[in-house]
Amino acid sequence: MVRKYGKPVRKTRGEGEILFAELPKSPLKRSGPTTKPEAQPQPVSVEELGKCLMEIVIADSEAETESDEEPRASERKGAKLGSDTPVQDEPTVQPISPPPSDPPQATPSDGPEEEYQTNEFSEIEESLRILTWDDVCPPGDTIQKIAEASYAEVYRITNDRGTSIIKVIRLHSPIKPQTKAQEKSGLVDEEPHSEESLAGELQISEWLADVPGFVIYKERYVVQGKAPKALLETHQVFHRRMKRQDPDRLQFYPSPSRYLDETKFLVVELGDAGTALEDFALDDVDQVWDIFLHAAIALARAEELVQFEHRDLHEGNLCIRRARPPKPHPTNKEDHNNNPCKFGFSGLEITILDYGLSRASDPFSSPASSEEVIYSDLESDLSIFTSTHALQCTTYRQMRSYLLRGTSRGGRKDPLLDPATHQTPHDLDITTLKPISWRDYHPYTNVLWLSYIYHFLTEHFVKYWSYPSAGSGLGGSKTAAAAEKKAREESITRFKQETKEMWTHLDPMASRKILSFSCAVDVVRFAVEAGWVRQEQLLEDCGGDGEGRSMLSFVDDSFATDYGQESSGEEDESSRLRRSPRRKTSRSGE
C-alpha cells in the first residue's frame, strides 16, 4: 500500500489536546525577603491605652519622618536586639543610617541564586515521574546506544511489548570525577543541560506530530541513580565504534560507570524510528529512491506547515524501517516504460530525528510579525563550522556561507568559506550588511541536506558494500560478491543518469549559471513533474465528500496549471507569487 499524507491544514488551539502543555515553567528567581514599613496605628481611646501608648505613637511618627528610607534595616536590627519593647528601640536605631555595604542588605541578592539552582530539580520532580535505570530497562529488556544527538544520548530499548527510543539528557547533578586514565587521554565531558535545553525540540515535535516522516513523542520522565551493567556495556561498544570512525575525537558523554545515586537525567521516550541510515544495509536501488524521496516529501511538508529547517540532517539523524514488503515493478516492458514512477516500491519508510539545531515557526500564532520562532543560535558556538572531523561538517559551512554570501558553492568569485574564516559570531551578510540571523527562515538549508543525503546514498550503496545481501542466494564466494558488486554499480549508475537533471539543481557546487532549488518543496515538485512520484501518492481522502486534498499546497489547481493538466479556474495571485521565486532563484543571489 502506498503511504498517503495529510492535508496542510493548521489546527486551532482548541482542536485536540496539546501534548506538551504540562511542560514545567522555568524556575523564577525569587527576590529577597522584603519587609513593609509599619502601618500607622489606628486611633484608640485614652482609656484603652493610656499615656504610654500615646507617647509611642509620637515616637513612631518621628521615626518615620527622620528615616523613611530604611524601614527594613530598622526592623531587622530591632529584631536582633531582642528587646521586650522593640518600638522603644527604634528611635535610637533609626537615626543611624547603615552604609550601602551593610551585610544585611547584601544577603537577599545572594540567596535567590542558590535557591534558583536548588529548586530546579524539585520543579521537575513535582511534574514528572522519577524512575531508576532498572525501571527503564529491567532485566530481560535489551538496550542499545544508537546515537549521540544534540544535548542527548539516544538509546533503543526492546522487549516483548515492543520497541522505543529514549533520548537521555544529563541534568545538573553530581557525577564521579574522571579516572586518571581518562584525564591522561584528554577526554572532555559533554556538558550537562537543563530541561529548558530540550523544550524547543519538544515543541517542534508537537507541531510535526501528524506529519509522516517525523518522530512520535510518547512520554518524558526523570531517571535517577547508578547505571546497570547493560547500559555500561552498550555505552562502551558505541564509544569504541566512534573512536574507530574518528580517532581524534575527545569529547564524549560521561561513562555510565560514573553515575551516582544522585545523578539525574531527563528522559524523553519516542516511537521506534528504525535503524540509522549510517548503519542500514541498502539492498537495492529502490531503497535509494524511497529514502531520498521520503526525506524530501517530509521536509517539504514541514516547510509548508511550520517553515521548518532541520539544519542537521546527516546519516545519523535519518532512520529507516521496513513498513511493508517490497512491491514489484511492472514486468511488461511497455508498461514499465509508460510508468516512470520510482516511489513506494521498497516498502521502507523514514523517520527524521533530532531537532536540536532546527528552526520552526508556531503554526498557531497570529499575526506573523509576532509569531513564536524556535531556533538554535548557531553563532553561539562556531566550532560546528570550524570542525573538519566528518563529511557533514562541510554542509554546516555551506549553510553559514549561504547566510553570509547568498551562496554555498565553490568557485573563484563566491568560494565556500573555509573553516578558518568562520571565526566572527554574527558576521555581516554581504547582501544586506546586517548580522546574519539563524532565527530567519532559510529553507535552502534543507536543499543542502538533501544534497548531502543524495551523496551519502549513492556512495554508501557501493562503497560500503562488501558481501552479498542477505537472501540473495549468491553465497559468500569472491566471485559471487564481485558479481553483485558489479550489479550494484550498474544500478547506481542508472540512478545517477535518471536523476542527472535533478542533481544539477540540487548540487551546491554547481555553476552559478544554473538555477538551484530554493527549498524542499522545489525538489518534490521536480519529482512529481518527472513522474517519479504520482499525484495520488501525495493525496489523502479528507472524508465526507471524498474530495482529495494535497499534503502540499502546490498539488492542487496550481499543480494542474503547472504540469499541463486541466484547471477549473484561474490561478490566484498569491499562488503565482508564492511559486515564482522557486522557478527563478539562482545560487548567486542575483
UniProtKB/TrEMBL annotation:
One of its GO terms (biological process) is intracellular signal transduction. Keywords: ATP-binding, Kinase, Nucleotide-binding, Serine/threonine-protein kinase, Transferase. GO terms for molecular function: ATP binding; histone H3T3 kinase activity. Residues 96-106 have a biased composition (Pro residues). One of its GO terms (cellular component) is cytoplasm. It is an enzyme of class 2 (transferase). The keyword Transmembrane does not apply. Residues 1-11, 577-590 have a biased composition (Basic residues). Signal peptide: none annotated. The keyword Transferase applies. Its EC number is 2.7.11.1. Gene3D superfamilies: Phosphorylase Kinase, domain 1 (3.30.200.20), Transferase(Phosphotransferase) domain 1 (1.10.510.10). Residues 111-120 have a biased composition (Acidic residues). Residues 1-120, 561-590 are annotated as: Disordered. Residues 382-493 form the Serine/threonine-protein kinase haspin C-terminal domain. It catalyses: L-seryl-[protein] + ATP = O-phospho-L-seryl-[protein] + ADP + H(+); L-threonyl-[protein] + ATP = O-phospho-L-threonyl-[protein] + ADP + H(+). Coiled coil: none annotated. It comes from the Eukaryota. PANTHER family: INTERLEUKIN-1 RECEPTOR-ASSOCIATED KINASE, SERINE_THREONINE-PROTEIN KINASE HASPIN. This is non-specific serine/threonine protein kinase. It comes from Rhypophila decipiens.
